[in-house]
Amino acid sequence: MTDTATHIPGEKARLGAPAIAGFTEEGENLSPLNAPEGHSHGKGAPVPDSSRAGRLTSYQLEDFAALTGREEDFRFTPLKRLGGLHKDALTGAAPSIEVTGSDVVSVETVAMTDARVGSAGIPEDRLSANAWRYAADATIVTIPANAENVLSTLRITGAGTEAAAQHIVLVAEPNSRGVIVLDHVGTAVVSQNVEFLVKDGAELTVISLQAWDEKTVHASSQQAKIAKDAKFKHIAVTFGGETVRLTPSARFSGQGGEVELFGLYFADAGQHLEHRLFVDHGTPNCKSNVLYKGALQGKDAHTVWVGDVLIRKEAMGTDSYEANRNLVLSDGTRCDSIPNLEIETGLINGAGHASTTGRFDDEHLFYLMARGIDEKTARRLVVRGFLNEIVQQIRIPELEERLTETIELELAATES
Fold it and tell me: Where does the SUF system FeS cluster assembly SufBD core domain start and stop, copy by copy (predicted)?
């Protein structure tokens, strides 16, 4: 299955094909035949909350209705797999945070009333708002102005299965250059808000690694605000966890900003790995590039990728592209991939999107096997080559090696 599109500048274009299912609290699959009229995907009726322009944002949980599984943002998410993160009191202990690396980075634990909390984003769904309500405090990590070659790791370790909330704020002060790794390990049931404040002229790379143990449920809203002439690169790598739902977003607050969003995920039997992205072009002359790649194997492995790009009428001179590529390694999997491009001005440099999902390329396998490489090795080489484009974006040798080893373990499981 392949879906690609490139926008030829014009007024009020909207590209993207809606999928056709949703999940109730009990895990019931909603087909177009039993979906409510307001959400009749596939029938040609409009979907009220499908546009990213004007979406509800609020710090107050009460402003978000209880979830039913019919909502646009949750129709691929079986609510019963969320561990109560969308409805329960999140009173468990949050995962611990250990910060290592550069000495110039400052680390603070502050009250949720601190002025810096909420400076990069406001909750956009009930999961995020519930985490906001129950977060006991916030961890703020700051890269000082004009700092160079900063590299720090936040080791985020879960140690329980009681539903919890967590809040993290990463600040890159003006003209700083740094890399922050969010290394999620252990076992947890946690709803998390992470903010990235990238100030004028700063360059921030964030690597969010979901290497959880198998019973973890992790929901993470990761919102970035990119100021004038700033650059933000976000790399999401998801292997671990039973249910992981990441919602990275990037909003431009000044001209000349650049955003790159990369992702790599590998789903095994029974895993639900979901990534929902949003790039909000509300300022002229900014650039964004999105590329996510995923692999699936095993019964009931399920991946979801939704990429939303909104180019507002004020965002003249925008240059944007997004793509999602998926490789299916066995039967019994499900992959949902939806790129959405919403354009409100024709005065842009370009915008496009693409989505592909398929099995091994038989020609590639034949080419390798014709040169004396056995089929098992040939398949590994194809998968490595497919995913390595994202691994190489990390540019931290020890972390790249760790991910390569993880991919090898995943492939070994496929062959067993």
Answer: 158-386
Three-state SS annotation for the chain: CEEEEEECCCCCEEECCCCCCEECCCCCEECCCCCCHHHCCCCCCCCCCCCCCCCCCCCCHHHCCCCCCCCHHHCCCCHHHHCCCCCCCCCCCCCEEEEEECCCCEEEEECCCCCCCCCCCCCCCHHHHHHHHHCCCEEEEEECCCCCCEEEEEEEEEECCCCEEEEEEEEECCCCEEEEEEEEEEECEEEEEEEEEECCCCEEEEEEEECCCCCCEEEEEEEEEECCCCEEEEEEEECCCCEEEEEEEEEECCCCCEEEEEEEEEECCCCEEEEEEEEEECCCCCEEEEEEEEEECCCCCEEEEEEEEEECCCCCCCEEEEEEEEEECCCCCEEEEEEEEEECCCCCCEEEEEEEEECCCHHHHHHHHCCCCCHHHHHHHHHHHHHHHHHCCCCCHHHHHHHHHHHHHHHHHHHC
pTM over 0.85: yes
Dump pLDDT digits (tens) for 384-397: 889 999 999 999 99
Domain range list for the chain: 2-359, 360-416
**Phi and psi angles of residue 398, each rounded to the nearest 5 degrees, phi first:** -65, -35
Q: Which two tokens stand for residue 162?
A: 């009681």
Location of structure tokens 């910060």: 99
